[in-house]
Amino acid sequence: MNERLLCLDVGDRRIGIAVSDERRILASVVETYTRVGYSPDVKRIKELCERYSTEYIISGLPMNMDGSEGGQVQKVREFCGQLENAGLKVFYQDERMTTVSAEKILMQGNMRRDDRKKHIDQVAAVFILESYLASGRSPENEIAEAGKMQVGQMVELIDDKGNPCSFEHLMTLEYNEKYYLVLVAEQDTDCDEEGEIVIMLIDKDDKGEDCYVPVEDGDTMQAVYDLYVKTVESEDDVIDDGTEDGD
Asked: Which of the four CATH numbers 3.40.50.1000, 3.30.420.140, 3.30.499.10, 1.20.1050.10 does domain 6-142 have?
């Protein structure tokens, strides 16, 4: 079974919350949470993630109708950044028109105006989650895609002295549910790292875009490097076995 997906319709005053089933076919309302502040808000979302045994969050992204990002998008990203700092994994879904659709559904059910206000956010969260599920996307695939880079692809980074330095991508590896790039500095450059193996964490910046962060923890760096060496050796063994079979 897959992990369930917890979906948020993040507003300034309230957060509508929905959840998928384990097969990721159905979306159901959970609650409308009244916001208090970053710390208690994150605590509540983590409590719900623990209840449904998931670390995956789908957050609606209130894009402008022309597809641009406004101030509300920035607020949502800032809050979701707090969730990521708490160890949760956040993915975004365009939520344009979901509130309007939720309002129509509640009106068709002859719900009173005051009651609609209590439920509209969680119903909007259901619409957001249904859109995500219908798209065929999944957190697992998105994580894998984010970590993909073609072997041999060149990446330009800046060294400690401010000099641009070209690196060749050797491998992307997963370690402790995070993705790392294994790079080697190009020969015949002025970089201090020339010819050295460099390991970078694939992370997200404030806009949710991929960025590469140096690994400062020595144990993590060694563990990823050891995994790289082990993977290379395994691939070499496969090649050797194939050669022997062909003789």
From this structure: 3.30.420.140
